[in-house]
Amino acid sequence: MNKIKKGDEVIIISGKDKGKRGVVLSIVGDEKLLVEGMNLVKKGVKPNPNTGERGGIVSKSMPIHRSNVMLYDATSKKRSRVGIRTLKDGQRVRYFKSSDQLVDAATK
User: Fold this and answer.
1) Burial class (CB in 10 A: 0-12, 13-18, 19+), 101
2) Please, are residues 36 and 25 in contact by the beta-carbon 8 Å criterion?
3) What is the pLDDT of residue 108?
4) 21-28 and 69-73 strand pairing
5) Pairing outcome for strands 32-35 and 64-65
6) Of 1.20.1250.20, 3.30.540.10, 3.30.1380.10, 2.30.30.30, which CATH number belongs to 9-79?
7) Phi then psi dihedrals of residue 102, to 5 deg
8) Is the pTM of this model over 0.90?
9) I want to staple 80 with a disulfide (CB 3.0 to 4.6 A). Which of 48, 76, 95, 96 is the partner?
């Protein structure tokens, strides 16, 4: 079970976007995440007349390593470490280590 999933709200803890908050759009491979509006780079794009795409310089969001983000705890309004706990019925759930709240219960 992954500690960070698609749709989670995370805080960037290192790099040029340190302290910013965003939503995980997708998971790239095993180690990287695509966070909405974070790690923007300028890319040169060639024009493609078949699709009507214009050429030029475009800002694009690039993946960031999962070690550089932490989950945002809405109850404490801070970032928090995440652990995995097995409930009595055998279900595995994620919880915030700082507040001992379940991650999925806090987001709903």
Assistant:
1) middle
2) yes
3) 53
4) unpaired
5) antiparallel
6) 2.30.30.30
7) -75, 140
8) no
9) 96
